[in-house]
UniProtKB/TrEMBL annotation:
InterPro entries: Cupin_2, RmlC-like_jellyroll, RmlC_Cupin_sf. It comes from the Bacteria. Residues 63-111 form the Cupin type-2 domain. Residues 1-27 are annotated as: Disordered. This is Cupin domain-containing protein. It holds the Pfam family Cupin_2. Signal peptide: none annotated. Residues 7-25 have a biased composition (Basic and acidic residues). SUPFAM superfamilies: RmlC-like cupins (SSF51182). CDD domains: cupin_DUF861.
Length: 124
């Protein structure tokens, strides 16, 4: 039997705040795996606002997602860098830092890397 699932991030299964109030991750648990919407506030940087939670030197989550608004700079451990903005699809391998560019929150959807993000698990 065909089904339709409709969920809202406004009623997320879990919300994980980032350090210093610099944003949050809203997580929906689905039959196909977790899907997250992250709101990264201006001034947010992974190495400042998630690293203390994750306990790793760089983000070890792989991300596959879509940028709804704002801009994000991503720098890989090997120095490769890029920037993503509204309408961009992104795939980012483990081993990176990232930060918000500008004074607008960066809002991203991710259907691969947010399951353990900002939890202290090794993949955060």
């Amino acid at each position: 039997m065909a089904t339709i699932v409709r969920r809202s991030f406004e009623s997320a299964d879990e919300t994980r705040p980032f350090e210093e109030g610099k944003g949050r991750l809203d997580l929906l648990n689905t039959d196909q795996g977790p899907v997250g919407r992250a709101v990264f506030e201006p001034g947010w940087q992974w190495s400042k606002h998630v690293k203390p939670i994750a306990g790793t030197d760089s983000c070890q989550a792989a991300h596959t997602g879509y940028v709804l608004s704002g801009r994000m700079k991503i720098v890989m451990d090997d120095g490769t860098e890029g920037e993503a903005g509204p309408g961009d699809f992104v795939q980012v391998a483990p081993g990176h830092d990232a930060w918000v560019v500008g004074d607008e929150p960066c809002v991203m959807l991710d259907w691969v890397g947010f399951g353990d993000y900002a939890t202290g698990a090794a993949s955060s």
